[in-house]
Structures are given as structure tokens and as C-alpha cells.
Amino acid sequence: MNWGSWSEFFAMGGYAFYVWGSYLVTLGLVIAEIVLLALRKRSALARLRLHGTAAQGDR
Amino acid sequence: MNWFKYSSPQTFFPLAGKLAPWFGALALVACAAGLYIGFFRAPTDAQQGEAYRIIFIHVPAAWMSMFLYLVLAFWAGLGLVFNTRLSGMMASAIAPTGALFTFVALWTGSLWGKPTWGTWWVWDARLTSELILLFLYFGFMALQAAIDDPRRADKAGAVLALVGVVNIPIIYFSVKWWNTLHQGASVSLTKAPTMAATMLTGMVVMAFGFWFYSIAAALMRSRCIMLERERASEWVVEYAEGPA
Fold it and tell me: What's the CA gap between B144 and B154, in Å, rounded?
């Protein structure tokens, strides 16, 4: 084990800003991508439900 | 097994929907294991202290940024040659995730460069060619978004993607061809890795995690693209109206 305590872990030997700045931004971007994908699917389905019934008329 | 069975959107759509959660779960497991090894098993670096722990996302993200571009170009080229609909959709489905990992590689590299090199950024060959890769992803997405007809958008995007492939060996070999501030490869196919075994394990496990994540994200995005592009086909309308 590398760390004597949690505060030592979070301090990252004085490099907390650089290490956590890397990890948190990456995590944030990944979460953002997942949320955007879910929203994109939902809006695609909503648009289909809206136009789907109308489109059946001209087929 | 007939692989062509899954080359149409109608048959690929449910397959992608079944596979995506599994790859997502694998990604979660691999990343959890990789982070555990990276933070609790890998020792402190003798020269860089704890700052080196950025490596567990920086290197896998950089690998993925190049690998995903090659996969994107492969699908784009396949679409150009065989004129299959699914190929173009797969290429478009990969692009944003590839751009994400390219940005992550640059961002974490910058945060690593400051404490170790003393600068956030230098215009050396490795950093510049990786930045060009980010612009290639953005260019591919912007070009596709600018063309209304999806089939024409796929063709134009494919040409851009294939021309851009030349940048991949430039990124990879930049540290050899030019005198860069960026260090050479610590892991290569021809030599034994020049790092502690636990550090290497953590890095490889994280790379698998990112790889599984990319597959999951690309599959999910390909489903969105199919719903958007194939909105006139019966199966899409049925899917939208059926119990989701």
C-alpha cells in the first residue's frame, strides 16, 4: 500500500492538482458523452413517434 | 456464421442494443481494476513522484485516439469501396468518441507536462501531430454535419478520413523521427517495456477499459444514427411505436 492515510492519497505527493485535474476532467467528459447519447436516442425516438403516424398516411 | 447477416441496419440495430450494455459493464470492471492497480499497487516513481500516475489515463487515451482513427478510416474505406450503408454509420459513430480520447490525451499530457517539463505546451512533433488528429476528428464531424444527404456526407467524410490516416504513423514515430521534448515509447512491440511491471499492468488494464468503453459508446451512437437516418423504414417506425 502506497498511502498512509486518505488525506495523503488525496494530496498525491503535492501533485493533486495535476493528477486529479486529469482524472476528474476525463470522468466528466465520459459522463457527458453517456448523457448526450441517452438524450440523442430519446429525441430521435420522440421525433419518430411524432412523425411516424403522419408518415404512414402517405405510404 | 454469416457475417453479412449483420451488415444491414435492421439486423445490426438489435445486436448493437444487446452488446452495448455488456461492453459497458466490461469497461467498468476493467477501469475499476486498472485504477486500483494504478493507485494502490503501482509504486511511486523514483523521478516523478506521484505525478506520473497521470500515465494510467494519458497513455491508454493516446493509444485509443490513434486506434479509433484507424477503425474509423477502415469503416469509411469499406463504405467507399462496397457502398454499404452500415459502414458510414459506424465511421460516424466512432468519431466523437475518438475526438474525446484525443482531447483527453492532450489535456492530461498538458497537466503532466507542467510539473515534469515546466510547461503546459510545446510545439514539438508529438504534441503537434496529436493536435492535428483532434482537428481531423473535428473536421470529419463538421464535414458530415454540413452535408444534408447522409450518403454523400459519408463519401466526403471517408475521403477526409482516409487522407488523414497519414497522420497516424507521424504521431507514432514522431518521437523517433524528430528530437522531441516528449519521451520515447516506454512500451513497444520490439523491446521489453522500460517500466515497473505493476505500472505496465495498470496501464494495459486501463487501455482495455477504454477500449470496451469505446465499443459500447460507438454501438450506442450507431443505434441513434440508425433511428435518425432510417426513419422512413418500417422497422424503425415499428421500434419507435412499440414498447421501448
Answer: 7
